[in-house]
Amino acid sequence: MEIKFEEKLVYKKPEALSDGATHYCPGCTHGLIHKLIGEVIDELDIRERTISVSPVGCAVFLYKYFELDGAEAAHGRAPAMATGLKRVQPDKLVFTYQGDGDMASIGLSEIMWAATRGENITVFFVNNAIYGMTGGQMAPTSLPGQVTGSSPRGRDVETSGMPLQMSELLATLPGATYVVRRSVHSIQTIKQAKKAIRTAFKVQMADAGFSMVEFLSSCPTNWGISPHQSLEWIKDNMVPYFPLGDYKVDPVVKSLN
Q1: Which of 72, 119, 139, 149 has a CA between 20 and 30 Å from the CA of residue 83?
Q2: Residues β-bridged to residue 69
Q3: How far is 36 from 80, CA to CA, in rounded Å?
């Protein structure tokens, strides 16, 4: 008796993502965040009207990884470029994809003023507590005592100050409509992150103002630990200092879900 097995497709790559391989290190969660963004773009059917903006940093080749219009900005200047693109093409959905070294350091003024003005753009902020692309130096978000390439004895808060908490900071600005922090270290947090991405895009689609989703992300190469250990490190070290949650949700946002 011949037994025939029928294969059933249960998952496929988002059409918003390209077929090429990425340059990210093994265990880096940038690729996972890309997948979540791509899935949401497909589900909302907005690929043809979406523009990505990525600056210098680990996300420098973002335009290669998404099958949509994309632009590359100078280091820290993605919010300024996104502002220009959105103002001249208000029918488009414009999002920036930025790391902590980019957005919380050289681009701090750019992102604060974009949020203050209430620019109708969506920001995806990847916080891995270190400068990833340039060799693992201390970033504005590196934790107290964290060993990095430029803080071999650990971050000294007396000389370097405390790490910046970007979600808490931007939530205080009047033009911000939706500011939340999520993570991608577990199945539960990944599901929550995808839901936040969807909400952030819906905020822009409703012309409701500035939205940002912060992701706690891993960097096993520069942290000097395994991919599995890096997920535990996020949970045990990053989450206590960068608590997950909603930091600003205007009433208009609640009507979008």
Answers
A1: 139
A2: 51
A3: 25
